[in-house]
From TrEMBL:
KW Transmembrane helix (keyword) present: no
Naturally occurring in which organism (per UniProt): Methanoregula formicica (strain DSM 22288 / NBRC 105244 / SMSP)
Molecular function GO labels: ferrochelatase activity; precorrin-2 dehydrogenase activity
Pfam families: NAD_binding_7, Sirohm_synth_M
Pathway(s) served: Porphyrin-containing compound metabolism; siroheme biosynthesis; sirohydrochlorin from precorrin-2: step 1/1
Name of the protein in question: precorrin-2 dehydrogenase
Taxonomic lineage of the native organism: Archaea, Methanobacteriati, Methanobacteriota, Stenosarchaea group, Methanomicrobia
Boundaries of every Siroheme synthase central domain copy: 123-144
Superkingdom of origin organism: Archaea
Keyword Transmembrane among record annotations: no
Length: 208
């Protein structure tokens, strides 16, 4: 598998399952796609999600009905507690060339990563399904270690713009950007006061 970032805003995503696992996966796509969730019942976590619900007993659902439910889907997710039904849905998806993620059962074509991000970045971590706990651990470590990461990216973007006007030498511009990135004092200031951090960058890196 290879990592990709995909715009799902105009894509149809179908999730089979109404439990906590399905809700976590639905939250991944809620508000970012045309999301449909299919299950006999739904946990309360779905109440806050933007999704079309289809209430149906999947144990008694024919292949013809399942094919109708996944029609025009970009991605289908099997998040039911019964791996046999997940596998059955997966086989129908493969026959129709639809991407499939399986929470419990035979491997599909897609793995949903652990994700962290901000206004200016997204980081996705995956162990290819081998250990979701490790993926979560890495995500939590990044969040704990770099709480001002979003602010640093915004500062670097602003600094690049100023440097392009002030410094014609690209190597020197890159050196300033790298030095600011490695400046622990700037990181600490960004966490509490972005304005003060920028003034410090101006004083120490732009007025030399």
């Amino acid at each position: 598998m290879i990592p990709l970032f995909v715009d799902c805003s105009d894509r149809r995503i179908v999730i089979f399952g109404g439990g906590n696992v399905a809700a976590r996966k639905a939250a991944y796509f809620s508000g970012k796609s045309h999301l449909t969730v299919v299950s006999r019942s739904f946990v309360s976590a779905f109440d806050s999600l933007q999704a079309t619900r289809v209430e149906i007993d999947l144990e008694k659902t024919s292949d013809l009905k399942l094919l109708d439910l996944i029609r025009d889907a970009f991605l289908v997710i099997g998040a039911l507690s019964d791996p046999e039904i997940n596998n059955r849905i997966g086989r129908l998806c493969r026959a129709k060339g639809i991407l499939f993620n399986n929470a419990d059962g035979e491997s599909g074509d897609v793995v949903l990563p652990a994700v962290t991000g901000g206004d200016h970045y997204t980081i996705a971590i995956s162990t290819d399904g081998a250990s979701p706990a490790v993926s979560r651990f890495i995500r939590e470590q990044i969040e704990d270690e770099f709480p001002a990461l979003d602010a640093m990216i915004a500062l670097q973007e602003r600094l690049r713009g100023v440097l392009k006007e002030k410094e014609p030498d690209q190597a020197k511009r890159n050196a300033v950007l790298r030095n600011v990135l490695n400046d622990h004092a700037i990181w600490e200031q960004l966490f509490s006061d972005r304005g003060a951090a920028w003034k410090d960058v101006e004083r120490r890196y732009l007025h030399g």
